[in-house]
Amino acid sequence: MRIDIYTNSDSHDCETCGASWAQGGKVFIDGKLIVDLPAVAHCYGASSYNEDELLVIALKEIGVNVFVDGDNYHVTCHNDYYHGKSK
User: Fold this and answer.
1) Neighbouring C-beta atoms of residue 53, cutoff 10 Å
2) Which of 40, 37, 29, 30 is nearest to 83 (CA)?
3) Pick the residue with more confidence: 83 or 53?
4) 7 pairs with which residues across the strands?
5) What is the mean predicted confidence (pLDDT) over 10-19?
6) Terminal C-alpha separation, the chain
7) What is this structure's pTM?
8) Predicted pLDDT of residue 86
9) DSSP readout, the chain?
């Protein structure tokens, strides 16, 4: 099995809100796109995902749960891949 993570970043500068920065990326497993969370920076509530979070989200997509010290790995930003669809 091969896992490839391609990261990207985005920045946004607003005269009212100030500067914002976000990370994101795509995860491929054996050449198949599993996760696509592009970086999108904007004024409020920009989601950002580092390499660790992208990997954990991709693993969950293929049925592998990651635990740290006995607890589920915590992905800080809500997204449909990891947390399920919002109602």
Assistant:
1) 22
2) 37
3) 53
4) 25
5) 84
6) 34
7) 0.82
8) 47
9) --EEEEEEEEEEEETTTEEEEEEEEEEEETTEEEEEE-----SS------HHHHHHHHHHHTT---EETTEE---SS--HHHH----
